[in-house]
Amino acid sequence: MERLIDETGAVVGHGLPAPEVLLDGYRALVLARRLNEQAGALVRQGRLAVYPSSHGQEACQVAAAAVLEETDWLFPTYRDVAAIAARGVDPLDVLVMLRGEWHCGYDPIATRVAPQATPLATQLPHAVGVGHAARLKGEDTVVMALCGDGATSEGDFHEALNFAAVFAAPVVFLVQNNKYAISVPLSRQSAAESLAAKGVGYGVPGVRVDGNDLAALTVVLTEAVARARRGDGPSLVEADTYRIQAHTNADDPSRYRDDEEVQRWRLRDPLLRLRVHLTSTGALTPELEADFAGAAEEMAAHVRAGMSQDNALDPAELFAHVYSTPTPQLREQAAQLAAELSGGDR
Amino acid sequence: MERLIDETGAVVGHGLPAPEVLLDGYRALVLARRLNEQAGALVRQGRLAVYPSSHGQEACQVAAAAVLEETDWLFPTYRDVAAIAARGVDPLDVLVMLRGEWHCGYDPIATRVAPQATPLATQLPHAVGVGHAARLKGEDTVVMALCGDGATSEGDFHEALNFAAVFAAPVVFLVQNNKYAISVPLSRQSAAESLAAKGVGYGVPGVRVDGNDLAALTVVLTEAVARARRGDGPSLVEADTYRIQAHTNADDPSRYRDDEEVQRWRLRDPLLRLRVHLTSTGALTPELEADFAGAAEEMAAHVRAGMSQDNALDPAELFAHVYSTPTPQLREQAAQLAAELSGGDR
Amino acid sequence: MSEKPTMIQALNRALRDAMAADGSVVVFGEDVGALGGVFRVTDGLTAEFGESRCFDTPLAEAGIVGMAVGMAMNGMRPVVEMQFDAFAYPAFEQIISHVAKIGNRTRGRVRLPMVIRVPYGGGIGGVEHHCDSSEAYYAHTPGLLVVTPATNTDAYGLLRAAIEHPDPVVFLEPKKQYFTKEELDLHPVPPIGQAVVRREGSDATLIAYGPSVPVALAAAEQAAAEGRDLAVVDLRSIVPFDDETVTAAVRRTGRAVVVAEAPGFASVASEIAARVSERCFHHLEAPVRRVTGFDVPYPPPKLERHHLPGVDRILDAVDDLQWEVT
Amino acid sequence: MSEKPTMIQALNRALRDAMAADGSVVVFGEDVGALGGVFRVTDGLTAEFGESRCFDTPLAEAGIVGMAVGMAMNGMRPVVEMQFDAFAYPAFEQIISHVAKIGNRTRGRVRLPMVIRVPYGGGIGGVEHHCDSSEAYYAHTPGLLVVTPATNTDAYGLLRAAIEHPDPVVFLEPKKQYFTKEELDLHPVPPIGQAVVRREGSDATLIAYGPSVPVALAAAEQAAAEGRDLAVVDLRSIVPFDDETVTAAVRRTGRAVVVAEAPGFASVASEIAARVSERCFHHLEAPVRRVTGFDVPYPPPKLERHHLPGVDRILDAVDDLQWEVT
Ligand SMILES: Cc1ncc(C[n+]2csc(CCOP(=O)(O)OP(=O)(O)O)c2C)c(N)n1
Ligand SMILES: Cc1ncc(C[n+]2csc(CCOP(=O)(O)OP(=O)(O)O)c2C)c(N)n1
Ligand SMILES: [Mg+2]
Ligand SMILES: [Mg+2]
């Protein structure tokens, strides 16, 4: 498994990214962690219906976004709110879905971030299509496609990896192996040596990396992105990480795992080790720490403020976007609803 | 790649099956080849609508059936008529589907042969289910599940291999890699080193074997079956073979491959090499050859005779088997058809 | 249970009783083991019957349904859970091309006594993909039985009947009612295929199933207050369809409204409206009206109340039944 | 072409013309390259436009449709081929959960201009899985356009229109008519959503689409010989549905029969019957009859003639339209 900084903060490998890169990464981790916390708080306050936290997986979230150019694409899942925010999308727009206002709150074309995928693994073939189209158009776009350990069991994972390999599509598949699919442990998901080993069956290089080590993730993903950009095809990266919190707030993890396991993983926290490392090298000063914390609080305040605004939703939206032009049937139905709402009917 | 007898008939490996086994196998090959020829002739005569020939792949067909016990199960595809016949099912029953009389002409429970699968790879999860059920019931049944190289690209292949591995189900997956999926060559199907390599991603042992070498197939499949029977789980066997004839009679292979390639593979014919070997050892005598040819002719005559019988089909069958008891809706519809047929209506 | 049980508890009880009664009943799917299912319908089954009778699978719905097919071929009675309506779609090919057809394909030599449980429908404030009403896909497919309870007693009884049935059953659980508490009567196991008149009425008939039954009953209640006497038929089984009960009810009232959550186009509601229009033609005083979901993807939580058939919309439709003509 | 072209040739011509007109149109699927498709609809496209514009994929329908989604997201206009009706089912989740919904999901910011071509229907002596009429699955799913031509000119025109359309289109090709030779008129491109009256008539209206249109026309021909004057409406587009044309035709005749190959239960035919019954209630002299496939899996070749709606069965239904009552 690729690792550069171990859980004690010690450097255990060569080729560490430049200090500025790590410092930027650390800042992003702080913001990602804060976003997870803020969203959790909003859920507890009943201001957000549901939130799948990536607490503990922030290094994956941050690295996935950081290694991309603006023209690249990110294909996130429901758990990747922090990755989308790290890519620069306003968290408020990302949370529109979890506020129950609309399915996708940001503009995928403008942001080059696909809608967060809920049906598992289904976004992966899309990522291949975006990449293949880019190649046909002569663009050197790279696509970063995220999924979880559970999603690797779906047929769409297989088909996407295989298509990407056969067409040498510029896609980096990043599996955040957080050990659980809701309650189902990895052992029920795969009997393979690793999830990275799945690359072999497609002729795709597979790499396993410490998913709580931002430095290693940055190096491995940067190389995979470069490979894709060169036209050398897809890669499969398995990030060894852990979901510290519940699957979502609706979940009760005590039914399927013990706290001891969680505690062990808390010790491998991605922020902690990077802070230790950067502090020890002197790159991270108390001023910078305060600076980052300030930025995180600002972001959190922005989220809280936005959340208290109740966006008016026009019921006519129900019909407006189903087709580029509503069908006669939808126009009829829209008229019916409008009549109801204007009290035309009972 | 596992190989025991090369295309010249020379023994190139150790652990050859006993001569009687090879002799039985050779006899089965002769029958399988004859069945392919007979079915082809019936198509040309218009007595069979369509036939997907396994000419050139007979060693796979024969070995898949030969290594099984009576209590084991075979899961064939549309191309595996010869394997089903080798398992002991009357070819006439197998051909019922291709005669257009009914979808499956034999009794899967009595014969322990699943209906021939048409939707690619969909039979593989069924095979896992049969195997897993056997284990739960404490039976040591093994399931031999067949598919083609093209079918490995389907999501169901992935899900079946993975389920089998996770549940250590007693299933042997035999991929007949005949290099084409209709017109699509293997290179468009997979960028992996081999199809056997796909096992790695599931934690399933993968073996590549010369699919035109009955001896090697027998050894490899026997071992895989034994492993499954012991409770050690599934195996993936890739048989390197070739479809000599068209995909079906409706196909025009000249559009996608040249005759030279076919000629090269004709030299690797599975019958030829085994005949050379068995003749050279003296096991195969002219009398035995004549005997086998006679049995093949008898089988062919039986098929021809059966084919000229026009089985009366009762239109009421349309409704009889949809449910174990027809619904009121189907009873109504059956009555309507009966009325039409008795001239009650126009 | 001292308190009245929820529908979830009724379903859980049905699974437990079926597993206790028949050793070939096995339950599997995603999160059905230790967790007891995301809705806890399978709660405690692994503890009570062991890993071999109730177990988690890899995350792959086609694999789950396909494995169930094989297990049913080999003598078991699998009951599989699809976690939400839209997450059954990956299993569509298995369901359409195999589950529905293997009995017919083999001239009845292979029957598949299996149940595919699908929590379905909206009204729970769920995000996209968690609120689809997918019954039409199954109901249109010959070879499947399609059943959906509207009460806790039916949830218990119909699930027992589905598990005992020799044919494959798509068992649609109205998740909006999962937490409804009601008296549970374990004894009358309704045979699959029988609708029930939940409320007699003489002016018009509301025809509903699953999650729309309570809404139809509420509408009838309200109509009664306004002086209109509505009958309510609960289909319980979409396939087979109980023409007799439905037709008799509509003939008695001469007017009918079909209520269902799914988008209306080419839906089960279309079928009901078409059948009733054809079979009751000379008894109808007004066209059969359909009150269904709009022909739109299931909307986000904050808009779902505009989409779902509600009491007012049903009563509007009843008002439209050309009362002045008679 | 000196000889009249087949529908296959009309479709091939449409693909070629679309690819020539717009460099973002790409064609892919199983066997569409060197082979030109098992039905040769894509014949010659790779030779003419190169591997990057028309290419074979690995054998995986969800992958094909999913890749098309991504390509459409990134500015291309993919036209994918599903080899046969039942072989589109593996792509069902992609079609239902994404193709149909991404436009809506993104409030119109991402539109998917893609076409899924599906050869569908029976009557060709095909074995199981090769003859399904799967239109109801698509038509019931909001967000998809569902189009099916019945003539070669429409095959050309509607496919061009489908490729140019900003929304995803499921394009159902009646494979029974693939080899029908007919004059091909390249010019009138019918907008998607317009039905056409193929034959005027005053006694009753037959409503059909795709493979059932020629059958309905033959029935009308025969009826004419027997003294009954039947109109025939060809829907051409199932979604959107042309209520105006259909309703006007039925109101003129006061009687209607819907003809479709698919199993009738919860089908497109149910929808048509329900709509017509509702919208033409006071004009109807008799219940709307449906002549559809039976509610059975598609039967083997030797029995399909009993299953498919034929001229006699249509005329029986017309005879049943209570002529004595008027
Ligand atoms: C096709 C499909 N089936 C089931 C679900 C329900 N579901 C949502 S999340 C989840 C677990 C996913 O696990 P994993 O892929 O490991 O991602 P993680 O949640 O751990 O990030 C399940 C089963 C779904 N969203 N899609
Ligand atoms: C799901 C599905 N998609 C498409 C087809 C159409 N089809 C029939 S055979 C075939 C090629 C199969 O190739 P392979 O798996 O290599 O088997 P082979 O025919 O070579 O034995 C295709 C595409 C099908 N039967 N099922
Ligand atoms: Mg996980
Ligand atoms: Mg092949």
Task: Briefly characterize the structure.
The complex is a heterotetramer, with two copies of chain A (346 residues) and two copies of chain C (326 residues). Chain A is α/β, with parallel strands linked by helices.
SSE layout:
The complex is a heterotetramer, with 2 copies of chain A (346 residues) and 2 copies of chain C (326 residues).
Chain A: H1 19-44, H2 58-66, E1 73-75, H3 81-86, H4 91-99, H5 108-111, H6 123-136, E2 143-148, H7 155-166, E3 171-177, E4 180-181, E5 184-185, E6 206-210, H8 214-230, E7 235-240, H9 259-266, H10 270-280, H11 286-308, H12 317-320, H13 328-341
Parallel strand pairs in A: 1-2, 2-3, 3-7, 6-7
Antiparallel strand pairs in A: 4-5
Helix pairs in contact in A: 1-2, 1-10, 1-11, 2-8, 6-7
Chain C: H1 7-21, E1 25-29, H2 45-49, E2 54-56, H3 61-73, E3 77-81, H4 92-99, H5 102-105, E4 115-120, H6 135-139, E5 145-147, H7 152-164, E6 169-174, E7 196-199, E8 204-208, H8 212-225, E9 230-234, E10 237-239, H9 243-253, E11 256-263, H10 268-279, E12 289-293, H11 304-307, H12 311-319
Parallel strand pairs in C: 1-2, 1-3, 3-4, 4-6, 5-6, 8-9, 8-11, 11-12
Antiparallel strand pairs in C: 5-10, 7-9
Bound molecules: thiamine diphosphate (2 copies) and magnesium ion (MG) (2 copies).
Number of helices of chain A: 13
Q: What's the number of domains of chain A?
A: 2
How helix-rich are the residues of chain A, as a percent range? 40-55%
The CATH architecture of the largest domain in chain C:
3-Layer(aba) Sandwich
Q: Please tell me how large the radius of gyration of chain A is.
A: 21 Å
Shape of chain C: globular
Largest sheet of chain C: 7 strands, mixed
In total, the number of domains of chain C comes to: 2
Q: What is the CA-based Rg of chain C, rounded?
A: 20 Å
Task: Assign the CATH topology of the largest domain in chain A.
Answer: Rossmann fold
Count up the helices of chain C: 12
Mean pLDDT of chain C: 97
Give the CATH H-level superfamily of the largest domain in chain C.
Answer: Thiamin diphosphate (ThDP)-binding fold, Pyr/PP domains
The residue ranges of chain C in which pLDDT falls below 50 over 5 or more consecutive positions are: none
Q: What sequence of helices (H) and strands (E) makes up the elements of chain C?
A: HEHEHEHHEHEHEEEHEEHEHEHH
β-sheet strand percentage of chain C: 15-25%
Task: Categorize the overall geometry of chain A.
Answer: globular
